[in-house]
Amino acid sequence: MSTQGYGGIVRNGLWSNNQALVALLGLCPLLATTTSATNGLGMGLTTTLVLVLSNVTVSLIRNLVRPEVRLPVFVLVIASFVTAVELAMQAWFYELYKVLGLFIALIVVNCTIIGRAEAFASRNRPDRALVDGLSIGLGSTLVLTTLGGMREFFGQGTLFDQAHLLLGEWAQSLTLKLDPDFPGALLAILPPGAFIGLGLLIALKNLIDKRLAAAASTRAMRPAPTPTPAEEAA
Question: What's the whole-model pTM score?
Answer without folding.
Answer: 0.87
